[in-house]
Write a structure and sequence with these properties.
single chain; about 180 residues; mainly alpha; two-stranded antiparallel ribbon; 8 helices; about 0% strand; globular
């Protein structure tokens, strides 16, 4: 109904009723992201990650918000954790996201683009190659992998200087 402010207000109210559930914060972040307010989206995603630090999809979503807000170092850190997994300082273990059809490939291509834009192509190329091998029927993933490889190889990506395209609606991670 295009009542974004009201939706965010209700989502934040839901969070105050159960502050151990970060799902309303992720949903609020998604509202801000759809409006292009990636800084606000990242703030809400950061808070959500604190409620469930083992959730790799929430780390991935936060990484994408950092990428969109041109905070590439933070994006790389969160996306690396989401994709490869790891252990946080407090001992929380984050299992890496397996590359499979659905919403996961976008996290891989954002990770690859963040690495490429940070002149870390030796790390980015295997990410793009994994997309080509792992989800060859996903046209958007293949397109972005090829664009990322072109960026690394000194070519000119077609859509806009190494910006991933066509992020699907299911970009909002599931709890």
């Amino acid at each position: 109904m295009e009542e974004s402010d009201l939706a965010v207000e209700e989502l934040l109210y839901a969070y105050t009723l159960n502050p151990k559930d970060g799902a309303p914060l992720i949903e609020a972040a998604s509202v801000y992201a759809r409006e292009g307010q990636f800084g606000k989206a990242a703030q809400h995603a950061e808070q959500a990650v604190k409620t469930d630090p083992a959730n790799p999809r929430w780390h991935a979503f936060l990484g994408v918000m950092y990428y969109r807000n041109t905070e590439l170092d933070k994006a790389i850190q969160e996306l690396d954790l989401a994709i490869r997994g790891g252990t946080l300082e407090d001992g929380t273990v984050v299992a890496g996201l397996l590359l499979e059809y659905g919403s996961v490939p976008q996290y891989y291509w954002f990770y690859g683009f963040a690495l490429a834009k940070n002149n870390r192509c030796t790390e980015a190329m295997p990410v793009f190659e994994a997309l080509l091998r792992g989800v060859p029927e996903d046209e958007t993933a293949v397109f972005n992998a090829n664009e990322g490889m072109a960026l690394c190889l000194g070519g000119t990506p077609t859509p806009g200087e190494g910006t991933p395209t066509a992020v699907p609606e299911e970009a909002t991670p599931t709890p």
